[in-house]
Amino acid sequence: MTHNKKIVLVVGAGDATGGAIAKRFAREGYVACVTRRSADKLQPLVDSIQSAGGEAHGFACDARKEDDVIALIEQIETQLGPIEAFVFNIGANVPCSILEETARKYFKIWEMACFSGFLNAREAAKRMVTRNRGTILFTGATAGLRGAAGFAAFAGAKHGIRALAQSMARELGPRNIHVAHVVVDGAIDTDFIRDNFPQKYALKDQDGILNPDHIADNYWYLHSQPRDAWTFELDLRPWNEPW
User: How far apart are the C-alpha atoms of 233 and 241, rounded to whole Å?
Assistant: First the structure.
């Protein structure tokens, strides 16, 4: 089946960064396909994009389940159009002392923040290589560059997703597929930060926390880059965030 529409698939389209990315691409005429484990939680985002004149579709998908991921990609590609941009935006930041960390929780954090990235990006890449074009973007964190006390599980997962992005970039770049990793370091303007870290949230008026819309602008920038000057890694942080 031939489609004229361009698709952006955002896996992990929450209320902040993922949703903002979907909206940013929708403003450029892309059909925003967004996923979470619960489709009901996607409806406000889908409604917002549609009310602004864009097109959006929400899908319930467990990103850790191979059969579910394969079926999702197949459904989008056959019913809606080619996935031109893929964004993996699942986090799993659950701090815990290494002395108290359980094997079960460590594995689940890795499964959510790393293994699911492999499954989804692999399936998107399989489609992109047949067309010799596409963009694959991973949301990372400073934990992917260095581990902090109390974040062993999260750091392990984020190191893994960064390594996956590096490997994919080296393999797929020569096939005209842009793979990039975005380090997002700092508090983001969300209800969670507002309610749980009021002192941090108070810095919003000073541009001291990350605006999801501005994060999304950078994802669009990466997707729009000419291939003679592709960026692999982009580091985003407020001006006052310590390195």
Answer: 18
Residue 207 forms part of a structural domain:
no
Query: Is 34:56 a contact under the CB 8 Å cutoff?
Result: yes
Cβ–Cβ < 8 Å for 42, 32: no
Residue 98 tokens, joined: 């290494």
Q: How many domains does the chain have?
A: 1
Whether the CB-CB separation of 232 and 179 falls below 8 Å is answered with yes
Domain range for 124: 7-186+213-236
* The amino acid at 138: F
Q: pLDDT at residue 2 above 90?
A: no
DSSP 8-state symbol, 88: E
**pTM (two decimals):** 0.94
Cα-based torsion angle of the residue sequence 166, 171, 173, 178 in order, rounded to the nearest 10 degrees = -50
Q: Which single residue is written with the structure tokens 């990466």?
A: 222
- State the burial class of residue 111 (Cβ atoms within 10 Å of its Cβ: 0-12, 13-18, 19+): middle
Provide the pLDDT confidence category of residue 211 given band limits of 50, 70 and 90: very high
CATH of the domain at 218: 3.40.50.720
Instruction: Give me 180's structure tokens.
Output: 């990039």
